[in-house]
Design brief:
The complex is a heterodimer.
Chain A: H1 2-18, H2 21-38, H3 45-52, H4 61-86, H5 95-106, H6 110-144, H7 148-159, H8 170-185, E1 187-188, E2 195-196, H9 203-206, H10 211-230, H11 244-253, H12 255-270, H13 279-289, H14 303-326, H15 332-341, H16 354-357, H17 360-388, H18 396-415, H19 418-436, H20 441-471, H21 473-480, H22 483-503, H23 518-539, H24 546-572, H25 595-612, H26 614-629, H27 634-655, H28 663-667
Antiparallel strand pairs in A: 1-2
Helix pairs in contact in A: 1-17, 2-4, 2-17, 3-4, 3-15, 4-5, 4-6, 4-14, 4-17, 5-6, 5-14, 6-11, 6-12, 6-14, 6-17, 7-20, 7-22, 8-20, 8-24, 10-18, 10-19, 10-20, 12-13, 12-14, 13-14, 14-17, 18-19, 18-26, 19-25, 20-21, 23-24, 25-26, 26-27
Chain B: H1 2-21, E1 34-39, H2 46-61, E2 67-72, H3 79-86, E3 95-99, H4 101-109, E4 122-127, E5 131-136, H5 137-140, E6 154-159, H6 167-175, E7 179-184, H7 189-197, E8 203-207, H8 208-221, E9 224-229, E10 232-233, E11 239-240, H9 251-257, H10 265-278, E12 283-287, H11 293-308, H12 312-320, E13 325-327, H13 329-339, H14 343-357
Parallel strand pairs in B: 1-2, 1-3, 6-7
Antiparallel strand pairs in B: 3-12, 4-12, 4-13, 5-8, 5-9, 10-11
Classes of the chains: A mainly alpha, B alpha/beta.
């Protein structure tokens, strides 16, 4: 392997390239821009890279790389702010961080959670870079070992994390995951393009629901509403303390966990086609399984922050392998990254095998720029965290409108359609109800995220296995029963068994009281009804497009079956059983406002947007909310509202984005940003 | 440092431009304006690459050096974006649209979701590409310029969708009498190539630029054997060797040499019609219906200036492959070829898709 002989000099050249003042300057610029963008939920690397793309043409390759890598590297670091402080999953990489990070913020330990998260991110990034430096040389044949059956099993392993996050009643958790998967099947079937639970008359649903919207809806909206109803600050402690030092101590105490999760991150990131969507869940599952005292999870256990955060920055490094060596982007931002590479210089950087043969110095530059950006980003984030954490001490009624404004804007970016907001609101409502009746929202999200990979790989594997078996029995078994597949099957089964056994102890969403049969029963009936509808809908898909029907048929059947079992159990058990968990019981004294009264504000924003367009609607919403609900003086109301609108316009113009138009805009042309 | 300053200033400038963008353009001077070029695909595809390549060049060569931003509106395999563009009428000359082969095929096949009409739009620039089919090493040994020795074999191909550009290779292999099993629902040709490399697929095709980049190393290692290109379209309408791959025979040559494959008759006519629609003028930049001539001229002038750059051949060959770029009237002519498919070719393909893939387009 002469490639190993080239590796050391190439590594030296890479450092020579990196350690120039201009390169570090561009890296800093990228890091600062990445942090600024990553703080906003829903705006990740894609938005940032699109922003700098016009400047890449003909730029010196190493400068362009520094700028782009700096930006991509820190997005999973800075989106931790939203996850921890507001319970909003900033991107798919930090979904699992919400589970324990946000409860920590509620307990007044936001700064501690943040710095533990950042220390883990930093460490994960560096472990990832070290690992990659060696691994990238031998990665090609290993990546090629992952054919459809292996990819299917990795997805199934990710799905098995539902076990541990299922909550107190396993069947409810499985049903929640089934519901998530069914929601993910909405739209055009992936094989024959047959429509599932949608129609050409409602074009919005044909493309299916986007992860941004489902993630924000299922996690963020229920939390915002719940906090607003209590009308106090996020944190129930008056002082935050100087927690950042403690967070770093927490990380140090759990450094082995951090190493393991970093390695999980970088290895799963390497597998093409899965990207980062499962990494944090697998890391979270691993964290729970290796912790002796599991009672703290979901209530603010710091290990639940350290695990996922160690994995998600390491994953970015792993994701470089399929991107650089095969030209297969692991994520949307990596796809733009590939496109941008060809614009740099005179186009000498091209992804594929040549990255190893001719451009190993640049490949190593990318790997170590990534690590360096992690260091810079983490230092900045830790420095900022004490200040930004103060947001958890502000009365939430003053924060919520801004948060809602940003979420609505982010949701709209996914499809540039007013329906994005309707979808966000609908999924938000589902999230509120799931939270209320103690249905596992993480299970729902895992199901949603993994439905497409599972369906695709299952179908590919099934088709190819069929062809192989027709050739010979041996060829067939060679294909489906490879050592990797068998190992993964064993791990998955173990993970499910261990997970379900432990799930009872892990209240991912805190204690929920029980009492009263009616409301939980109605919700269960509604969910079962939806699954039944999905079943019938899949049944009606014509036979020539049967491949599009199999997956929803199977999942809907399982979901309906779970629903039936739960219905029987509900008949048999008393209303004090945990089956009838209902957050609205015994909580009335905590809530100053009713659920529907609070929701009305956001329904109002939605309705006004459909009439007047986003900016006019937002102005009315902010003015009336600050004045009527938060009870501010007119001066404060006007100032806050103007700040919100101004900020939104600034963001949109920098990122070159539009706002949702309303009915008004179809009758008259208004100047930007109103029109 | 100049670039750095530009980048930092970018934010401020963009804010200013956004305000200016709403003012109507007088005559055809674009100074201080922002042209929005909408691409009906995601940021990740070949069309994105194409638009991102041209956007800074347009900005440089257009009267008044406007900012050109590429906007992405993915959905329903580009049908969503194209339907949106159909609803746009000329207001200020700052709206441009880029279509691709995947926009052309559903239009030609009468997909029920298509609500757009190519004939309404004004093409200003068109550029093409080619494609190369290749075999695995073992079966490649059996290939002797004809498909005669390949007929007893079963091949596996990762297919993106029966009505997508993949219908060109699928129909070609079928005409050659080869038995190809299609694994449907592949996300992109990159994934198909990875399936080939890992041995799951045994036959594949790539467009020119990705063949050059990713398959050529495999050919050098002896892991892949090029089979045929789709060819290039000569000005007299004949299919000739692809200038990017002069050493690889075209499908037409292979078909001629293979027993039972004919380069005349309904099957050939249908294949050729869809090839012309899908490859030689695959990506077209359009202005909306009703755009006045002076605005059209400004765009045509800019694209002509780009084509006249001394380094254009070099930079475009690297990023887009060696294919002609059609501007103005030539683009109009290229569009004519891209959207004209005889009824017999259309019904042949429709029947074949129904029979082999169970796809019903009615």
């Amino acid at each position: 392997m002469d490639i190993f002989v080239d590796a050391l000099p190439a590594l030296g050249q890479a450092w020579q390239l990196i350690l120039q003042p201009m390169v570090i300057g561009y890296l800093m610029l990228g890091v600062v821009m990445g942090l600024a963008i990553g703080i906003f939920p829903g705006l990740g690397g894609i938005a940032g890279l699109s922003l700098v793309l016009p400047f890449m043409f003909g730029l010196d390759p190493i400068l362009g790389l520094a700028l782009m890598v700096g930006m991509v590297a820190v997005v999973p670091t800075s989106d931790t702010f939203a996850s921890v402080l507001m319970g909003i999953p900033g991107s798919s990489a930090s979904q699992a961080t919400v589970l324990d990070g946000f409860p920590m913020a509620k307990k007044g330990m936001a700064a501690r959670a943040l710095s533990a998260a950042f220390a883990s991110s930093l460490f994960g990034g560096i472990v990832g870079a070290f690992f990659l430096t060696f691994f990238i040389l031998i990665a090609r044949p290993i990546v090629l070992m992952f054919q459809s059956p292996e990819l299917l099993m990795v997805s199934a392993f990710g799905l098995s994390m539902v076990g541990i996050l299922a909550g107190r009643i396993a069947i409810k958790g499985i049903m929640a995951a089934g519901l998530g998967m069914l929601v993910a099947t909405i739209g055009e079937g992936p094989f024959n393009g047959e429509l599932r639970m949608s129609s050409y008359d409602y074009p919005y649903l044909i493309d299916g629901l986007k992860l941004v919207i489902v993630g924000l809806g299922i996690f963020a909206i229920p939390e915002i509403i719940a906090l607003l109803r209590q009308d106090k600050a996020i944190s129930d402690k008056a002082s935050l303390g100087s927690g950042w030092y403690e967070g770093i101590k927490d990380w140090w105490a759990n450094k082995w966990l951090s190493i393991r999760c970093s390695l999980i991150g970088v290895t799963v990131g390497v597998i093409p086609g899965l990207g980062g969507s499962v990494v944090d869940w697998i890391a979270y599952g691993h964290t729970v399984q290796t912790t002796k005292d599991k009672s703290g999870f979901g209530k603010g256990e710091v290990r639940g922050v350290i695990g996922p955060e160690s994995s998600n920055n390491a994953k970015e490094g792993g994701g470089l392998v399929p991107t650089l060596l095969f030209g297969i982007p692991g994520s949307g931002s990596m796809a733009i990254f590939i496109g941008a590479l060809s614009l740099l210089g005179s186009g000498e950087l091209e992804v594929g095998q040549v990255m190893l043969k001719n451009n190993l110095n640049y490949t190593y530059s990318i790997v170590w720029l990534l690590a360096l950006a992690n260091v810079l980003g983490t230092i900045l984030c830790i420095a900022l965290s004490t200040y930004i954490a103060k947001i958890t001490n502000i009365r939430f009624a003053l924060v919520a409108p801004f948060v809602f404004m940003i979420i609505a804007f982010a949701a709209f970016q996914s499809g540039q359609n007013l329906m994005d907001l309707v979808a966000l609101f609908s999924i938000g409502l589902l999230g509120i109800l799931m939270r209320r009746f103690d249905w596992s929202r993480p299970a729902f999200l895992i199901g949603f995220v993994l439905a497409n990979p599972v369906e695709n790989y299952a179908n590919n594997a099934n088709q190819i296995a069929g062809i192989r078996f027709r050739q010979s029995l041996e060829a067939g078994f060679d294909y489906i029963a490879s050592p990797i597949v068998l190992t993964l099957i064993v791990i998955t089964i173990l993970s499910v068994i261990v997970g379900l056994r432990q799930a009872k102890n892990i209240l991912a969403e805190g204690e929920v009281p029980s009492g009263g049969k009616r409301a939980p029963l109605i919700f269960l009936l509604a969910v079962t009804g939806f699954a039944l509808y999905a079943l019938i809908d899949a049944w009606l898909i014509p036979s020539y497009a049967f491949v599009d029907a199999i997956f929803p048929l199977v999942i809907a059947s399982v979901t309906v079956l779970c629903g039936a079992i739960l219905l029987v159990q509900m008949r048999l058990k008393p209303e004090t059983d945990i089956l009838f968990a209902d957050r609205e019981k015994n909580l009335s004294e905590e809530n100053r406002y009713g659920l529907w009264v609070t929701l009305r504000w956001f329904a109002g924003l939605l309705l006004l947007t459909s009439l007047l367009g986003f900016i006019l609607a937002l102005a009315l919403f902010l003015l009336s909310f600050f004045r009527l609900r938060a009870g501010l003086s007119w001066v404060q109301t006007t100032l806050y509202s103007a700040a919100g609108i101004g900020f939104m316009c600034f963001m949109a113009s920098v990122l070159n984005r539009d706002f949702p138009p309303g009915l008004l805009q179809s009758y008259m042309t208004l100047p930007w940003p109103l029109g | 440092m100049k670039k750095l300053t530009r980048l930092v200033l970018g934010a401020g400038v963009a804010a200013g431009l956004a305000a200016a963008a709403s003012l109507p353009a007088t005559a055809a001077d674009f100074s201080g304006k922002t042209i929005e070029w909408t691409i009906p695909f995601s940021e990740t595809g070949g069309s994105a690459k194409w638009a991102n390549f041209f956007a800074p060049l347009i900005s440089e060569h257009m009267e008044g050096n406007p900012t050109v931003v590429v906007k992405f509106m993915p959905g329903a395999g580009s049908t969503k974006g194209a339907n949106w563009f159909q609803g746009q009428s000329h207001t200020d000359g700052l709206t441009m649209f880029g279509s691709s082969g995947s926009t052309q095929f559903p239009y030609l096949l009468g997909d029920p979701r298509v609500r757009y009409e190519y004939k309404d739009w004004i093409p200003v620039m068109a550029s093409g590409t080619g494609g190369v089919a290749y075999l695995n090493a073992e079966d490649g040994k059996l290939f002797d310029g004809t498909a005669n020795n390949l007929k007893g074999k079963t091949f596996i191909y990762g297919n993106q969708g029966a009505t997508r550009l993949d219908l060109i290779p699928a129909l070609a292999w079928k005409m050659l009498g080869m038995k190809v099993e299609h694994v449907m629902g592949i996300k992109g040709r990159g994934d198909g190539r990875k399936m080939f490399e890992s041995g799951e697929a045994t036959i594949d095709y790539q467009t020119s630029s990705s063949f050059l980049k990713s398959v050529t190393p495999l050919v050098e290692e002896g892991k892949a054997v090029p089979m045929m290109t789709w060819g290039a379209l000569a000005s007299n309408g004949d299919i000739v060797r692809d200038p990017t791959f002069p050493e690889i025979p075209t499908f037409k040559e292979v078909c001629d040499a293979t027993d039972g494959c004919e380069t005349s008759g309904p099957a050939w006519d249908a294949w050729k019609a869809f090839f012309i629609a899908g490859f030689p003028s695959q990506k077209i930049a359009f202005l909306p219906a009703g755009t006045p001539q002076d605005v059209v001229d400004a765009y045509v002038k800019a694209f002509n200036a780009i084509a006249a750059r001394s380094d254009f051949a070099e930079i475009s060959a690297k990023r887009l492959g060696k294919y002609p770029m059609y501007v103005g009237d030539d683009a109009q002519a290229a569009l004519g070829g891209a959207i004209t498919v005889s009824d017999s070719a259309k019904s042949y393909v429709t029947d074949w898709l129904q029979a082999d893939f169970g796809v019903s387009l009615n």
